[in-house]
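Protein: NAD-glutamate dehydrogenase
Species: Ahrensia marina
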Amino acid sequence: MAKTLTASAKRILQEVSAKLTASEKALAEPLLSAAYTEDLAIIESDTLAAAIKLTAEALLTHKKSDSIVEVQSTSDELGKPMTIVSVINENKPFLFDSVLGEINEKAPDVHMVVHPVLDVKHTAKNFEIVDKARPGLAREETVKTSIIVAVLPPMEDDARQALKNDIVSTLAQVKAAVRDWHPMQSKMNDIVHALTEGVTPARKKDIQEAIEFLSWLRDDNFTFLGIREYNYVGGEKTGKLVRADQPALGILEDPDIHVLRRGDEAVTTTPEIRAFLTGRDVLIVTKANVKSVVHRRTYMDYIGIKKYNEKGKLSGEIRLVGLFTSAAYTRSVKRVPYIKSKIETVIARSDYEADSHSGKALLNILEDYPRDELFQVDSTTLLRNAEAILALTDRPRVRVLSRIDPFDRFVSAIVYVPRDRYSSENREKICAALAVAYEGHVSAYYPAIPEGMLARVHVIIGRRSGETPKPTQASLERTVSNIIRTWEDALRDEPDLDAVAFNRFSFSDVYRDTVSAAQAVRDVDYLEKLSTEHPIAADFHAVTDDTDSKSSAALRIYHLGAPVPLSERVPILENMGFRVIDELSYEVTLKPTEPNGPISIFLHEMRLESASGDAVPMEDEGVLYEESFISVWAGGNENDRYNGLVLSTGFDARQVTALRAYGRYLKQAGISFSQEYIASTLIKHSHIARQLFDLFDARFNPDRAADPEEDTKVTEKHIKAAINDSLSDVPSIDEDRIIRRFLNLIEATLRTSYFQRDENGRPKQNIAFKFDPQRIDGIPAPKPYREIYVFAPDVEGLHLRFGPIARGGLRWSDRSEDYRTEVLGLVKAQQVKNAVIVPVGSKGAFYPMRLPHNGTRDEIYEAGRSAYMTFISSLLSLTDNLDGDTVIVPPRTVRHDGDDPYLVVAADKGTAAFSDTANGISQSHDFWLDDAFASGGSAGYDHKKMGITARGAWEAVKRHFREMDKDIQEEPFTVAGVGDMSGDVFGNGMLLSKQIKLIAAFDHRDIFIDPDPDPATSYKERERVFNLGRSSWQDYDTKKLSKGGGIFPRSQKIITLSKAAADAIGLDKTKASPTEILTAILKAEVELFWFGGIGTYIRASHENNSEVGDKANDPIRITAKEVRAKVLGEGANLGVTQPGRIEYGLLGGRCNSDAIDNSAGVNSSDVEVNIKIALAPSMRDGSLPREKRNKLLEAMTDTVAELVLENNYEQTLTISRTHERGASMLSVQKRLMESLEDRGLLNREVEDLPNDEELAERATSGTGLTRSEIGVLLSYAKIVLLDDLVASDVPDDPYLEKYLMGYFPKKMQKDFAENIRTHRLRREIIGTVLANEVVNKGGPSVISRFEDATGVLPSTIVRAHVITRDAYNLPQLNAAIDALDGKVTGDEQLALYKDLSDSQRTAISGFIKTVNDDLAIADHVSRLSAIRDALEGKLMSIIPQYLNDWAKERHQKFKGCGLSDAQAKRLALLPILTMAPDMAAIMDATERDILEVAQALFAVSNTFKIGRLEHLANLLETGDYFDGLAQQRALDTIHTARNAITISALSNSKLEAAEAVKAWHGANETRISRVQERISDLTDKSDLTVSRLTVAAGLLTDLVG
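Structure follows.
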């Protein structure tokens, strides 16, 4: 009965019992008790239940003597599939091992197998397990039943069916063998009897030995499996065996079972069998060709016994198959019949006494001899082999003892090798070598390692066809000796072996087996060079085998610590132009006893061939390829197709890098071809690639430039001519274009750091190129003045400058494909920003190439900072330095441009904390700007701490609301925005008014909604969060939110809002995705939308998202038409696209642009730089230590902020004044744009300015330029004017020193006055201040209008502006109007500004027309001021009554606007006082005093009603710009005529002024009357036109002609 259940089996039985019937439960217990505990642990109860059910079903139908086999698929509750096998039989021998042998052959991984043998009683419908050991059950009629249950891995349907069929077949053979056991025993008795009693031709001794052997077999020394008889028919040479009529027994009952085969063919008779039959031996013992499926899975033993007839003649053969039992293998050879006679013969024929040492050794050899071989071998062969083995005792060596099977079906080879040389690998090689030698296959092998110094393997080589080869024993032994020859054996023969170095390493068996000793010695040389600093080495070398090696190469890669995956090796090699044919890898170990050991080193052996099929040059023994591979691996070069140039051109890795860098720049420049195609083009036309590099080398190699034997200019011409000749042979247009772009780039290059060296004298890894973009073909507008492109292993980047003195931020870009496009998009705004500072715009971006994958924030920061350092150092490597006034050229740099020492940088996205880093690099280069190189560092002005960017933008916001008559510093107003309180712009901005009601905001992490915030409470909480530093909206105290408010992570899929929150942002539902909520916030109906974070969120309706270039925000971006905010404040960059701003402005929205709004940051940085430049001489001479300077900088912080914010105030005011005049300015603005275009300074399309057709449409609709468009014109006007001023002598006028001094804080003006006067950028600073002031006061078109109207240079116009400004003390009036902020309506204040501006424009015009001398500015100011002073107090008593009335009316009006009485009076009289330049000219001509001149002038004006003419002319509206010029020209002519009449009157009389005019009138009364009448006709009878005004001007001129 079954064993007792274990605890785990009991638990499992309880689990499965609920799923089983009663009879199944009865079966379950014996099955589970027969299983091993560890097997049960890995099988789910569902599978066990299924196995029990399947077995129970099979057992239910089982009948005595039947075999039932079931193979079924099942799966457990986890879905894991399994296969169940159930085999039911009446118990008999060999069942379990035979079935298990079949299962193991088909499914080696058996999870569980049990084999209980049970007494089973069958009833009509069920079965019962009977325990006969229990009292009263011993006589029960039961069937002793074998139950085999196995659980296997899942099998396909076909495999399960095949397994079932094979088990059924196996059971049939078991059944046959067991059934015929006794008949086979009886047959053996008959055979023995026949040999004993019958007549045979054999020797009696042989007969007796055969009888003894067969009897021995019968006595349980042989497992009989089958017997079959054959009759011999025919003669000795042609006879054959045919099956006898006698029934076969056991498994041979099946006629399809053949025990002898030759190859795949079953045979009965062969020449070898015939030889046995006709020989004298009575029987033969050998191996069948068929494995047994019964009992043991091994080749069956075959015993052939001759049959004789009654006359003693051969009549046939009886074939017996089966398996020798263990006794046949373990019993002494002296006690095994058939073998013992061979042993006795061998001992007898040997020369050794049985008791001698050698005799005993010989017997031991025979006892240990392969027993199967002893049965088969003849005694002669056995003696020879035994003596050969005996000879090995004293000197172990190789021995191969082979024997060909008598039936020529196999070869038996016994191989001896020294024990220490034996291994499974060697055994496999020996077997394989024997199979080759005998042209067969390894059928079986039997290794043995007896005591002593030898190992043995008995190999059976199966033969299939043909005659068996007969190699000599010596040749076989040589082959085996070579196989077991060790690595050390070969190494000892190597002459270059460094044993000490070699012994540091352990080499794997695989390495030893496959690598030659000579190669191993070479490998050690490379292994010795590896270290943690240099963990990889490569050895390219020529192929040394017999193959055609011209296009092939070999490569060995050595790597410390870890294998190099194929996926990393192969792409590098393929990009180098190789194809990998095959590869092997080995592991070598630095021994534990060595320093740093143990450590693994991996060696990869690769066979390569040229992908193009061309030869692989090896003149340098592969050094170029090794350098290229290692450079790519180490990150010094990129893994791309450019590396194929090494193979195609012979370039080294650095030369390839130069062309790669040019190719990568072309990618940024917008070339349409892929990098792979560009590289492939260069590889394809390798001769041109060499020419291109030679041109580059000729232009920039300092050694060639210094060589007196070479004229590089001539060389360049020859190379370019050769390139052009070569291009004629390039058939592809695309390839031609690529090559020409490279040629163009090389010619547009001004400098490069390619030939510079590092501190160790090695070429720098980083390469920088300085371009003249104006000479580069195909790059998009705007084209910078200069551009530096940096290409390094860890960073790419570029810096665009739009003038020699340029400034702008460097940003950390995340746009690897188009960071130049990103920079171009930003530089337009930078140009506008820089209009208020000394330098023009510049912008740069760098893209870190090696940010850590999944790195922490700190790790990414440090990697980015490292890339930034490389980028900055590379920029400086091409920049001239200064030592005093001496220019220092970078070392080993050929310049194709002039001196260019000005390079400053600033922070931008991602680089806010890098200023100190940049300045540290500047100082390490001893760069003349020292820490003025990068503003905002620890010794500079911290923008966030100052809040300067936000404060500047807030000036713009206040301006918008002021003109809406709302004071946002005193009245609550609603705000939404982008950003969080940790940000500089957003955080500072949201603390600039305590009246802010922040309704909603978001950043990249969170969404903030506060439906009805209390301004005071929310202000304090925002302030608290801001002061935390690195905070987020999650730090905001939600208790301070109004009802319904909340803070929500953007990571949520769906956010539930309160109704109040949804209503606050205009969302019509309370459950929405973050994207929907963010879009709603952007559309929220608030008074101000404040941009303080990164991203572009509003576009024009005609733009698409791809044009915006900010994919991250595509899902939430809205159009300008959808914006409901009244004002946009762009404290951050690119919150709105320029077309979006324009559309918003045309719809009535109020916005400027990011460039206008956030220019304060740029401005403060520039002031910082110039302050530091001014203080540098004092630092250099020691009078101002750095620490003291830093304290001074800090002390001036507030003053710097005031200076900067004044620009924001003035600039936005100018935009407002220009915008307020609307469509009336379109013709003037159009003329400005055209003049800028004519000079090649403006591209309207690039700047999104309207074309002529659009301007015409605007004029028709009465729509002027929007504020954002005006901002662009404002910046261009300032930039162009600055250039014109710097090119003139205006900045050199001593009077303008006050502009220079006023640029700097007052704390510097006394102690460092001389430093300021000698400032390197003195002229540029003066020009910048002047350009800002002139354009701010006069508007963007001020210079172009005066140029067209007067024909004078911009410098003359600016001189006139300065003179009139100070002569009339206009700053005082401007300040008075500024002080009215929030006190009068926006319209009233703008009207005051306009009045003041118009007066100054008149004054400037009058000055330009009347003054033409070389007096200094100071002299003009002094003289004009004196005239003004003389007139101002007495003017009301001099002017005609109509002017008096007009002035009084203006006086009262201005007083009503908030000006003081004195200020209102001055402004009221200013248009009249602007006649002072005319009066000065009359004074000079007549030598009369000012009051007389004034009286005369006003008298003339009154006589000819010139005041009325001026009034009518000013009312005249002209849509055409040149009509306007004609109108102004006519007025100028009238004024000139008036002046001339006045001069004539005063010059021709000694009378008082009034009397002199009367006298002149009397003398010319007739003419005067006629002119007066005609002028009246022109002005009174119909509307005045430009032509009528021109005629009137001519009539007046005629009076003095």
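Remarks: The longest helix spans residues 1521-1547.
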